[in-house]
Amino acid sequence: MEKLTKIEELPFQLESYLMLGDAVIITDYKHIIVNVNKEFEKVTGYSGDSIIGEHARFMKSKMTPKSTYTSLKKMLSEGKPWSGVFVNRKKSGEIWHSSITISPIQVGMDVYFVGVFRELEQLKQGIYLSENKRIETQRELLKVLAISCEIRDPGIEEHLFRVQELTEMLITEHVQRHHLKIPKNTVHHIIHSSILHDIGKSGIPEGILYKPGPLTTYERKIIEMHPLMGVDIVNKFSKELHSELIFNQDIVRNIILYHHEKWDGTGYPNQLSGEDIPLEARIVAVVDVYDALTSRRPYKDSWTTEDALSFIYEQKGKHFDPFIVETFLDHFERKAIIS
Ligand SMILES: [Fe+2]
Of these residues, 201, 211, 262, 300, which one is catalytic? Predict the structure, then answer.
């Protein structure tokens, strides 16, 4: 292998890192390999002599998501250590999933990057899931949970999927429109968790939940307990599961607990108002009501899109966040112009 640059000597201050039991790679600030340890040679099959002076990217498999390198670059440029998962290739061509921590270390005027690998097969957590597979599994699990909690309601599946689709549209357009600095991951969590907004309904007696006529005050109070019951369900199963793999607990709790709060403070269960209601709950509130209005239920006909949108407009600043209503209505206006 032809060397890209003049080979640098490893500063003595960094020698002790090579004594670690895990595979270690040390590069200069341009990611040119300065040294590796025996464990690295053993795991990857590359001898140190053959790769010192190479750019560390030569091990890339093209299977590591771009976002991994973006977050790595960002952290290192800020002088902070970064941890993540690389999918590299060993000398044999075999794919190598490894968890790595890269720490910037200053020696005199120079910065070096010390990378400590752990093979994922050796991690106690068990099987490694790629980011895409993890997101897919997460989505499926949440779907199964949401449907099982509301299985008594025929047609609930369609309502839940529509709520999820509309939440995706609304949060995406709202973030773009107001240049909100919300990480992509958080947006994904909001979209996936929206399907769980009514899981607490599984704790409401059928006779009340599907009562065709008007509800008594007592029955209404029982129905209004569903956000609290939903949070209780989430608390129970998050104790049993390695839950951060499945959802962001704060987001899912906020959606379940606050999707019936109103902008003017007249909602339930906590009478929160304005921006005290978390954004994710304000978003789901609009799409949940819109979809309920436009769906046919045993006790009511479906409203037309125009009537439902007029109702949403009329509730702007009362039931709903006025800015979110604007994004929502603009979406339908654009759609109407296009069609
Ligand atoms: Fe609800």
Answer: 201
